[in-house]
Amino acid sequence: MTNTEQDRWSRVKGRLRTSVGEDVYTSWFARMDLESVEQESVRLSVPTRFLKSWIQAHYAERVLTCWQAEMPEVHRIDLTVRTAMRCAAPAKEAPAPLDARRAERADGRPAQELRAVATAPVSASHDALGGSPLDPRLTFGSFVIGRSNTLAHAAARQVAEGRRGDAVMFNPLYIHAGVGLGKTHLLQAVTWAGNSGSERKVLYLTAEKFMYGFVAALKTQTALAFKEALRGIDVLVIDDLQFLQGKSTQAEFCHTLNALIDAGRQVVIAADRPPSDLESLDDRVRSRLAGGLVVEMGSLGEELRLGILKSRVAAARAHHASFDVPEPVLDYLARTITHNGRDLEGAINRLLAHSKLNAQPVTLEMAEREVRDLVRPQEPKRIKIEDIQRVVARQYNVSRSDLLSSRRTANVVRPRQVAMYLAKTLTLRSLPEIGRRFGGRDHTTVLHAVRKIEALVSKDTALSEEVESLKRQLQE
């Protein structure tokens, strides 16, 4: 590259900096290099496909205009990715033209060729933004519907079938359930269906990937680019939100959530607990999450477990035509493996492996032997603080709002203390969280209530029987 070309490139960068501002320039153009200048074209390079795609979609005309101010004869810019361009592999990436003669329309906006990048399939968005991998098996077609997941499935379908510009019905859509009950399956199904033949961009990220992407953007000084890219998504799908950690990451998630919802974009979120139980998240985030449609996916009933088993057997038979599981074996598995859907799939995989490797048919005796470690004792019912408050209020003939209020009359103080004691002994919630759920009280107030009831129960037989009765009602 000659000194003249380098000088021109320096002046072009100066124009770009003035045109877009310092922050945008630093995020998008600071790592752009000049490779060569020919008669009517200029060859530029950037280090990542993401930068290349974003510049093509949003700044093509700006780059071309700045070059034409320096060299009027330039009508084309070839933008390449340095790692791909300098690779020794024979298949090199073809330059993407930013051609002024094809780029402008009558209204001055970029033509369809340049905007195509912004409406690329989900795979391009996933590659560029570090989207979490998608499992091709997790589609609506393979999702088995039962009583416990009907509403969640219907809401997810509604989101997936929406079109760009449609009014958003549920925003955010928040799905919560225990491990292995189908949350991830539904979220990935939304992503697959939402991008299939649609002009929308649907991005699926786990909370871990979101954190990694944000931290990496901070380190490489592309945080603005990361934010702009996320907020350009039509449907943002976040899985395992309970793992979102770090004040700055949570703040960024809150800003992204607000920006997308305010712009009429769809947000779909899954976690293992309702928004009110996400203690590590800021109150504003919890409030915004609870303001959409919150749906719980319950435990799998026996009929649904049987349906899942039959679905998995049919899927296995597509690759192993001779594989067969007799009806009594399926009934046995559906009756005894009650924990979650992943255990059911694991059971079918074990039977398939044993049947194929040992060339033996599947029998009830074999199934009992192979899956005995998957037959777990029934988990105790998960008790919620709201349930405790409701049952205690009914027992003592007060309202739930009385329990949360600042009233100090005797007929309210004792039930409130009993409810706090039960919340501490029957749930895994911390003292500060219990205090927050009882009208924003300090954790020391909760500790005092717990110790008070513990002392009274050991001496007052009537109160002890009342507390045991309340425990039985909550655990049934």
Automatic annotation (TrEMBL):
- Please verify whether the record's keywords include Oxidoreductase: no
Q: Which GO terms describe its biological process?
A: DNA replication initiation; regulation of DNA replication
**Do you know which Pfam families this protein is assigned to?**
Bac_DnaA, Bac_DnaA_C, DnaA_N
Q: What is this protein called?
A: Chromosomal replication initiator protein DnaA
| Source organism | Bradyrhizobium erythrophlei
InterPro entries per record: AAA+_ATPase (IPR003593), Chromosome_initiator_DnaA (IPR001957), Chromosome_initiator_DnaA-like (IPR020591), Chromosome_initiator_DnaA_CS (IPR018312), DnaA_C (IPR013159), DnaA_dom (IPR013317), DnaA_N_dom (IPR024633), DnaA_N_sf (IPR038454)
Quaternary form? Oligomerizes as a right-handed, spiral filament on DNA at oriC.
Give a yes or no for keyword DNA-binding in this entry: yes
